[in-house]
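Protocol step 4 of 5: obtain the predicted structure for the target chain.
Materials: sequence only (see below). No template structures provided, no constraints applied. The aim of this step is simply to have a reference model before the mutagenesis design in step 5. Sequence pasted as it appears in the construct record:
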Amino acid sequence: MPRSATTSDVFNAIAEPRRREILDVLIAGEKAVGSIVDDVSLSQPQVSKHLRVLSEVGLVRCRAEGRRRLYSLEPAQLRPMHDWLAKYEQALAERLDRMDDYLKELQRQGDTQ
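Step 4 output (structure tokens):
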């Protein structure tokens, strides 16, 4: 996949499992790159590469504190993903409700026999 598609789209950026792992680490709060490296067991250059992609799509924010770079999650940028998934969650819930109704009907039919 070309780099431009990955860095311009939240969906493509979080398709990479290591980036999702980094986002999971940042849920707890702001962290320095070194702490993220320890948490995800990747090399510093790999973590920095993934942080750059996540920053470019707005999922993480970086701030300087002296020589350190501290990263934090920007959860509001996940809203497009949430909105997209919501319609599928609703469809799944409706199917599960229909299955529940069907199972109850089967149980009633079994009780009458």
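Step 4 remarks: The chain is about 65% helix and 10% strand. The chain has two domains: 3-73, 78-112.
Proceed to step 5.
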